[in-house]
Amino acid sequence: MSREERITHVFTVRGRPVGFRPGKLFGAALVAMERGHFPVSHTGYRSVCGIIGSGPGKPEDVSQEFLDTRALEEERTVRAILKACGKAGKPEGNPIHNYIRISSDYQQAMRCGFFATDENRRTLWAAAFQLLAIVESDARFQPVPVKGYLARTKEICRDARDDAKSMKEALVGMAAGTFPKKVPCGGLVGLESYFELPPKPAGEPVIDLGGFVPEMKLKLPVTVLKPVRTVRLRSAPEEKPSGPVEVQLGFLDVLSADAISGNADPPDSPRSKLST
Fold first, then answer.
1. Which site in 38, 116, 159, 264 is 20 to 30 Å from 227, CA atoms measured?
2. Residue 209: C-alpha distances to residues 111, 126, 173 (Å)
3. Would you kindly state where each structural domain of the chain is located, as residue ranges?
């Protein structure tokens, strides 16, 4: 092991070990020492060159306040990813935009789950699974070729769908506690460090990803304007209107909604006197 790979100090953050690794010539980094929660970075690595002067870094260059701040930032990152996942399942009408948005969110959720707490991993991976299932089952979220757009050829779109399928299969396997020896799919490139760490003695947590009801497969009807229908409204028995009045069905709906909510007009209002 070279000098720049040697861990010279171990911090404790949120009850978890955080290794300090000085650079060979300058700077340093915080690195994960084992699988599981790494509170200062969801990638298992955090450079601290920005807070260190010239030359190789020293453990005393990193304050506990800095470590605690990084842990809080990571917690906010998890919340932001989950919030984005909640919005990603709502189509915006354009399959290309839908796919770009939803694929970015399920990748973030899946990647962030490796070095998260067991509880956060369950939540993040369940969210990623739901989004991957939507892509698999709903054409409104699948990449489609666009004429004249080189990034959306038929071949590229096919590969993108295959990548999503591979990520879903990898996610299901890892949620069951079966981890491969290396990164299982292209969408997780950059997380090699997790698979290089020793396996957990007690094994990885088994995660219930939840069921998926393909509600998104329901085809929403296209709005079509129809001829205006008219109805006649009868006044109360004591009213004696002078003639028929016709109103659009939309206006009738408003009246019905008001009546249901208790906001109906008083008997002497103009709307209550509509009659035949």
1. 264
2. 15, 4, 11
3. 8-213, 230-273
